Amino acid sequence: MTIITSSNTHIKGSTRDYVYQIIKEQIISSELKPGAKISEKEVAVKLNVSRTPVREAFLKLAQEELLAIIPQSGTIVSPIDLSIVEEGRFIREHIERAVVREACEKFDENLLFQLETNIEMQRFCMEKGTHQRLFDLDEEFHKILFDGCNKSRSWRMVRQMNCHFDRVRMLRLLSNLDWKVVFNQHRQLFEAISSKNPDRAEEIMIQHLKLVIVEKEQLKELYPDYFK
Fold first, then answer.
1. 24's torsion region: left (phi>0), alpha (psi -120 to 50) or beta?
2. Residue 74 φ/ψ, nearest 5 degrees
């Protein structure tokens, strides 16, 4: 049984949402590794909640294929399914290439400043080797693009479909597979948006979101037990 610990993150919503978010974050970060067994009872004790919201959180995570509830056996963390990773990546590529083109038209100095500040924070985290914060800044960079184009609902939909994709992204950061590649692509996206060059921005976004295709075999070699 892998121990669930509470999070320092303030999570709005129900107790179920609280439990769900903590477990989901720990699956994506590989604190809860594929194949690890977890139980409603122990999670409820560790998080000081009743078993009902834990059961509801487990069901929601099972619907997202992050947990596998096996009758007579228990609940385990699902392995990373590369077919789900690819579907999530496909959706992101086709939506984000359109978003980044729109960003070239709509982004003003304030939004450009937000992107530039984010990139500078990425540089700092890369130098310090803080992979979790780098992952969060990567998320924030893309969220700024969606929010700046008034596509916040689309961002939430994309996020919902990308749990397995995020697990691979986090493994990439944990493996230290040349973080400069992702950083440089973000910087190039910023430059293309700043210069209002939608063709260049779309080209870089496609390359950026296909990075996982190039590196998945290397990650499978490094973490053979993590994948389906």
1. alpha
2. 125, -165
* 4 is a domain residue: no
CA distance 221 to 227: 10
- Please, are residues 32 and 63 in contact by the beta-carbon 8 Å criterion? no
Pairing of strands 74-77, 37-38: antiparallel
What are the tens digits of pLDDT across the range 106-148? 999 999 999 999 999 999 988 887 778 888 999 999 999 999 9
| DSSP output for 130-193 | -HHHHHHHHHHHHHHHHHHTT-HHHHHHHHHT-HHHHHHHHHHHHHT--THHHHHHHHHHHHHH
Residues 130 and 180 in one domain: yes
Band (pLDDT 50/70/90 cuts) for residue 1 is: very low
Residue 171: domain span: 82-226
In one-letter notation, the amino acid at residue 157 is: M
Query: How many domains does the structure of the chain reveal?
Result: 2
Residues 45, 134: one domain? Answer: no
- Taking alpha carbons only, the member of 70, 81, 6 closest to residue 38 is 70
